[in-house]
Records
---
Amino acid sequence: MPPLQLQLGEAERALLTTLTKQLVALLAAEEAPQGDVDDPLAALVGSLNLEDPQSNSTPSSLPEDAVLARLLPNGYRDDDEAAADFRRFTESDLRRSKANSAHRVLQDLATGRDPIALDDAAVPAWLGCLNDLRLGLGTRIGITEENLDELSQVSESDPRFAMLQVYDWLTYLQGSLVELLLPEE
């Protein structure tokens, strides 16, 4: 498939760059230390102390920040111990994967090319990053399935209005990319 062409104006590029940099900073800010990198197993899964799970160097609980909790959810809703184990073994890789996608978006934005050509390797990174930005922004604004219709009607004087506009634009951008990937009928 030929590369997808993404046309963004200067203001759109600047906004997307700012949001993506904030996402990268958020993902890196609370990342746990990786333990003893001289031990290949510890480097792969983190340093684990089976006698005292709380002393492990990898995270085992849901992040306190609501956006991080949304981006890095528990793997098990009804089993705290299983959720902690799952998080301990997967969170670092999930953070890294999300950050890598965001870095790819930043790299593509920084080229200055207009339009931006998204090859097969870039498309999943862009879709993932846009989804993470939407989830994060939606969490900060307080969007839920129950209040989405209400929030779509807020007035311009509402402090959330501008962020809701950005949320809608990110939704449009992500949806447009998905539509381009769908086979033609």
---
Amino acid sequence: MTNPAGFWVRLLANIIDSLVIGIPVGTIAYIATGNWENEDFSTPLSILYSILIPILWYGYTVGKRIMNVRIVKVDGSKLGIGAMLMRVIVAGLIYVVTLGIAAIVSAFMVGIREDKRSLHDLIAGTYVTYNAPGDENDVLVNE
């Protein structure tokens, strides 16, 4: 096993990311439109943040960096646009279509599975680890 991150640290990283993207985007949306909750403004920016920042920053987002965890590919290859699209867009659609049931299942998977992989990790071929970039242990064993 290569140091997978569990449920609570991942949840806290997601909460931090929500604040990091939510507060500035909400403020910009309010200045631009006069509405704090303009989804036409905030949703695309949140999606871009979730897809692009991990690609550009070795699997980290701001929340994951603060929590010292990052997203990596199971096979050890570089995290790319394909994996992140699968992780964010495809998995997000599955969570919406199942009315959130798949998201609940995913949370249990992170808490119960030895490798701590959720549905979106399985779909994208990723996992979340405490390993730093360049760590030779980035390849997940026992897949």
---
Amino acid sequence: MRRGFTLVEIMIVVAIVALLAAIAIPNLLRARVNANESNAQATLRTISTACESYAAANNGNYPTSIATLTGANPPYLNEDYTASARQGYAFACGTLAATGYSCTATPTTCNTTGTRTFTITTGGVLTSAACGGGGGGGGG
């Protein structure tokens, strides 16, 4: 008597594995997007804290470049977060002036690496908008 699996048994196992994959993969991808978005917010808060600390030490004048923050001794920032994308987000500080700042985190691939664009402005005000440029509001 031969022992082994029949074609029907193998097909049932394949169907079960496919069903489990169909359930698990979207959840794993969503968890990755959530992690990317949380990291983007944390990075913007780090930049904001550095800018606010700089202003506190310089009579209320904010830094005029990232190099000012990374080149201080000791540095306000350990690295230039705007130099390259990290964890699915690209960072840019469109406004760095003595009167204030505005920095943005944009997903490198909308709806794949992130679903929202985040902006932090003078005073540490964090806002978000759909990465396609649509609605938004609130942050956190």
---
Amino acid sequence: MKLRPHHLIDIVTSYGHGDEFKPHPYGHALHIVAKKVLCDTSIKIKFVCASDDICRPCRHLQENGKCDDILPQLAKPTSKQTYNDSLDSKLFPYLKIKRGTRLTMHKFLTILSKHVPGIEKLCTHPKEKRKSRLKGLERGLLKLGIVSRNRLIRHPKTC
């Protein structure tokens, strides 16, 4: 599986908030990928700063592999491609992983857990509250069995 780091952070946050993963009008595969990575944390992921397995079926993904969607909620409307590339370019060094690295979901979550709290300052999306992002991340990591009262649990989760 090929994924952007911020997509996994979004999935864990949404899972922590109890959000339902369902098909989106854009046709992207978030609901499919979320189910796979949340049900089997032993799944291997290649980390990229480009279109990934979530983006692949999206109607906004162009033949050149770039997203043509715009984020109108920013002060200056920005392309989603530019926003996502910038975010992931910051996340790689912050998490101390390199582009192209292959990790299990469990290993990624373990790395992520070492940056919570803190990472929410980097990856809170426009119009989202930092406290809400942090709470979702914390709950998601707890529900996935990665943390328990700030202690790591070292077994992968499967559904």
